[in-house]
Amino acid sequence: MADFVILSTADWDHPLWTNKQHVAVSLAASGHRVLYVDSLGLRAPRVGAVDRGRILRRLGRVLRPPRYVREGVWVWSPFVLPGGTSGIALRFNSKALALGLEFARKWLGFQSPIIWTYNPLTLRYLSLETFSGSVYHCVDRIQAQPGMPAEKISASENQLCRSVDVVFTTSPDLQADLERFNPHTHFFGNVADQKHFAQALLGNLPCPSLLNDFDRPRLLFIGAIDAYKLHLPMLEILVSRTPQWNYVFVGPVGETDQGTDISELRAFSNVHLVGAKPYGELPAWLAHCDVTLLPLRHNNYTRHMFPMKFFEYLASGLPVVATAIPALRPHAAAAILCEPEPSSFEAGISSALASGGPSVKERLALAAAHTYEARTAAMLSVLNEIGILRDAVASDAAYGGSNVLVRIFPSYWPEWLLSKLTILLVVGLERIGFHGRAFEILRAFRRRWPRNIPVLRALAIRFVKQGDFDAALEVMEDLWVNNGQIDTLKTLLFRRDSRPENPQKQIALFETLSRSLHLPMTYRCYSSVVLAYRILKSCDQARMRETTVALEVFVRQLESDPGTRICRQANRTNRAKLLISCYMTLTYLYLELGDRKDLAAIGRRASSFMDSFNLNMINRGTSYRLTRNLMRCLLIDVLEAWRLGDQSLYYQARQRLARVEEYCHLSIHDNNNAREDHRGFAKALIKEVDSLERLIISPQRESQHIHELLRLMIKNKDPSLDGVLPLFPDYLLTSMDEVTR
What we know:
By secondary structure, the protein is α/β, with parallel strands linked by helices.
């Protein structure tokens, strides 16, 4: 179970439900928890009753905590200035949203949520670094709508696409536009709530009273009636030609385009504009009509859109006559697609009324294959593969549920305050030497409040200091499984001063941690990596062999996981970086063991991985940080080429190393804050590799020519190389007979 924050561009209570509300519901139906954030307002408010009403409704909600609307879904209305996307208004909105969202997350217990945003201006308001993953779901060419700040939206959207982990689009043209900025851009067309709209087929829905007044055939359009989308001039001619047909329009007029003028259309006696109707009533309107319409224009907006009503119409079983916009053309077998011309639409409607075109069976089959359940499952599969879902665990330890007030005020806050006071008391007792008493107090607190995170952290740290590593592991597993917390283990893995001073105790600690069945795979693997380095220092060859076996299990798992090559997780939870770390650790182990055969195998595996790997596909900061160790692993093939006199192997290895060096020097890494000089290292290594080219096929390959490469490979800074050369006996032979024996 994961937590999602949906940053919407539509209020939850809007009568026309769109992707935003449906995605929230389907995520919750998949077992996740969702905080739905009402629209921030992409444009400045307009004069008129519609925007005035929205503002008044928003003011009535902004001071409320998140409200529970259905199982797994809460809605929060932020206190922001509509259209405040620059200057003082932007600074106010950014601060208000960040503070309000932090409160809402704590209110609901959302510890490491994934942000799923529909707002192209998101980066103006929020930092994505505060979330465990990020999705931009682009459902429209918003900047092509009237009254929108087009240039600002386009520039912000491009930056957002570069920054998020994944981009989902609802049309092929949107995908083509945005995948230039993010290689993880996927097309998932709009779908429908099939069960809801299939009610129209049952034959038991009463006819809406307004519809009873209109003779059949009835032609139905459902949706916002805006001039920038609907081809109103074409409709006026079509309506005038076909007085025998009644045209029914269900939806608000000028929802987005206030310049929409329907006066001429309204003047026809066979045109009926009935206004917006609740979502729950729409199947009844469909059940008592004969043909559904999507009379769209051809323009920049519709070229990038996928009308939500298309599959909703199909799910009702009614024939669909629609403009052949790009997104609908692949589905021509289930609908009558035509150009937005009166004669074309008239012919299409006539055919539909005469039972021509696709059959009901064909329409329903296509609708059944395009549901929110199926699409959401496919989207979540993408998030899982790239690594931003699998470790996003939501905790229900102290929060959640519909009765949030009852959970927080009488229970959580007193417990939190008492835990802080308890830890202060424990620290005081330890300072005066009463360590046993302090331990008893912490354990008693845990028995009373077993999910209290501060106390669990304090216990884990003290069990480690005491040397009771099994108990420490049990508490850390509790923190992860029941509370979604992994910070204590991360500290032990990546901060050396947090570990026991005694080397043997360090080995015992990480042996215990690596045996866990419940901690995340990445942290269990890093426990094995840290353990390997501790054992290397002990020079215990038997335990080195055991460690290589344990690491090989993780390596095979990572190599076989296609998500390793596209992981978007940052640094220490990135699977690609973890695999390279494992390769490097095994390199050291096989060098110490004098096992050239297995060392050469690591070089081949690293090269094979590189050939199937695109550094641009993983998290940007991580991809830069792993380049040093990746080049060290690829260097093994260079050493093998030198040892064997294999010119072909040398050039293959040189080419792979050049790819990594070129990537290091891309401008996107100019501001990278990595402590090591990755570019300088890459340049120095390539220089040394190039110096070997003329010697690869030489009968006498003197070992001094590879000394600097050996130093670069094992991070040795000692110019004497005394501690390096003994590790490379098979690469230091000088006679051809010895090399080829």
